[in-house]
């Protein structure tokens, strides 16, 4: 009987080829990760379907080229590709996250792992695994923004509660003072000097009462009387007063979207809010400029629930002044905070706007850039029967 002595070698070779084929199938079946080998110098030796999907290159385009082609120019200049290989060789593994570049030039945020490949203790290359985690980075950014918005809302709520308590007590004290002054005024009509003093005290007390009402509005303690109103009509009726409030070197323009839905709003409070914003813009335009009032219907997201959208009317008051420094913008709606010189502002105008918008079921927002002006936006919900 004649035996084939080479049969075991053939079986071993077939098994090895089958293992290699299965390994290639496995690598090409992984599309969420770019998995490939580098030689000791960082030249790409293999490529998988995940690499093509993530980075946009076919196997023929990258095999034989250096893996630094995936790095940003600034990382290449800083020596990041070579440093990652050195860390993998010296420490047994390299892992990091950073920006990488696709074939079309777009950037993505990647999680990268590089492991050294050893044969009998000798380095023969590297295994590199890259995953696109741009979506995760964006999710983290949105989460951080939501957390910051929540912290700011909690801070404003705490300030509002403190303000509400103080305003109620102060309002009660003012009521006593005003009533006493009224009684004194009735009995001193024969003394002109004393009458003038009493009248001055009454005007100061009434000013204090107005500030108290603004505080109550900020603290959501002022009772509003919402009625169905046309926002464009309200602004149109207020336009003459706003024009008289502006000096000759300030232009007041209107950009009112036609056919806006009806809103349910306290008309005097909306008028006060818009007038406050116009006066703020006027004060920011000492050298002259333009104030623009814009109305529009928009579908906006709720900051406390980013996945929820609402149909709202937006009223913008914009100026082309110097703008507000970034570090001050998060404080502008706080009561008594003002960027104006001492004696030129109470710091309650924007807090009234904030409180009115919040109490009306909407919100207020500010955008500003140094040298490009400021826009304060009031978002008010559309009346249900007009949707």
Notes on the protein architecture:
This protein has 387 residues and is α+β, with helices and mostly antiparallel strands. Helix content is 47%, strand content 25%. The protein has helices at residues 7-29, 49-55, 59-62, 73-77, 80-91, 134-187, 192-218, 231-245, 267-284, 326-329, 349-359, and strands spanning 33-38, 94-101, 107-119, 122-132, 227-229, 250-256, 263-265, 289-302, 305-319, 363-369, 373-381. The strands form three sheets. It has a five-stranded mixed beta sheet. A hairpin with a 3-residue loop joins strand 10 and strand 11 (373-381). It starts with 6 loop residues before the first helix and ends in a 6-residue tail after the last strand.
Task: Please outline the helices and strands.
Elements: H1 7-29, E1 33-38, H2 49-55, H3 59-62, H4 73-77, H5 80-91, E2 94-101, E3 107-119, E4 122-132, H6 134-187, H7 192-218, E5 227-229, H8 231-245, E6 250-256, E7 263-265, H9 267-284, E8 289-302, E9 305-319, H10 326-329, H11 349-359, E10 363-369, E11 373-381
Parallel strand pairs: 6-8
Antiparallel strand pairs: 1-4, 2-3, 3-4, 5-7, 8-9, 9-11, 10-11
Biggest sheet strand order reads 6-8-9-11-10
What overall form do the CA principal axes indicate?
elongated
Report the average pLDDT across residues. Answer: 79
Counting structural domains, the number is 3
Report the β-strand fraction as a percent range: 15-25%
Detail the poorly predicted runs. 342-346
CATH homolog superfamily of the largest domain: Histidine kinase-like ATPase, C-terminal domain
CATH class of the largest domain equals: Alpha Beta
Q: Report the radius of gyration as a whole number of Å.
A: 34 Å
Query: Number of DSSP strands?
Result: 11
CATH topology call of the largest domain: Heat Shock Protein 90
N-to-C SSE series? HEHHHHEEEHHEHEEHEEHHEE
- Total number of helical segments? 11
CATH architecture of the largest domain: 2-Layer Sandwich
Q: How much helix is in the residues? A: 40-55%
Distance between the termini: 95 Å
Major β-sheet profile? 5 strands, mixed
Task: Decide which structural class fits the backbone.
Answer: alpha+beta
């Amino acid at each position: 009987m004649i035996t084939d002595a080479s049969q075991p070698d053939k079986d071993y070779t077939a098994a090895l080829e089958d293992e290699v084929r299965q390994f290639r199938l496995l690598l090409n079946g992984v599309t969420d990760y770019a998995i490939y080998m580098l030689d000791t110098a960082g030249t790409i030796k293999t490529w998988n379907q995940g690499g093509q999907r993530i980075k946009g290159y076919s196997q023929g385009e990258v095999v034989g080229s250096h893996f630094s082609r995936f790095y940003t120019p600034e990382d290449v200049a800083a020596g990041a590709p070579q440093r990652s290989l050195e860390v993998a060789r010296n420490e047994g593994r390299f892992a990091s996250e950073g920006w990488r570049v696709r074939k079309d030039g777009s950037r993505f945020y990647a999680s990268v792992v590089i492991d050294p490949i050893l044969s009998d203790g000798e380095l023969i290359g590297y295994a590199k695994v890259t995953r696109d985690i741009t979506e995760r980075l964006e999710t983290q950014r949105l989460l951080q923004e939501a957390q910051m918005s929540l912290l700011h809302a909690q801070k404003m709520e705490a300030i509002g509660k403190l303000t509400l308590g103080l305003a109620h007590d102060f309002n009660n004290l003012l009521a006593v003072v005003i009533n006493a002054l009224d009684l004194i005024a009735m009995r001193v009509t024969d003394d002109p000097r004393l009458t003038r003093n009493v009248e001055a005290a009454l005007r100061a007390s009434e000013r204090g009462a107005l500030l108290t009402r603004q505080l109550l509005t900020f603290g959501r303690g002022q009772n509003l009387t919402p009625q169905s109103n046309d926002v464009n009509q309200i602004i149109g009726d207020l336009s003459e007063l706003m024009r008289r409030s502006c000096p000759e070197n300030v232009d007041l323009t209107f950009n009112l979207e036609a056919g806006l839905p009806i809103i349910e709003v306290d008309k005097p409070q909306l008028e006060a809010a818009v007038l406050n914003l116009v006066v703020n813009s006027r004060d920011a335009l000492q050298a002259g400029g333009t104030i623009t009032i814009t109305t529009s219907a928009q579908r906006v997201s709720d900051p406390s629930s980013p996945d929820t959208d609402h149909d709202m009317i937006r009223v913008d008051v914009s100026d082309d002044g110097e703008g507000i420094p970034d570090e001050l913008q998060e404080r502008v709606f706080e009561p008594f905070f003002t960027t104006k010189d001492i004696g030129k502002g109470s710091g309650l105008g924007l807090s009234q706007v904030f409180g009115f918008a919040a109490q009306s079921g909407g919100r207020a927002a500010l955008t500003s850039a140094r040298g490009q002006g400021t826009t304060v936006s009031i978002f008010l919900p559309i009346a249900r029967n007009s949707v």
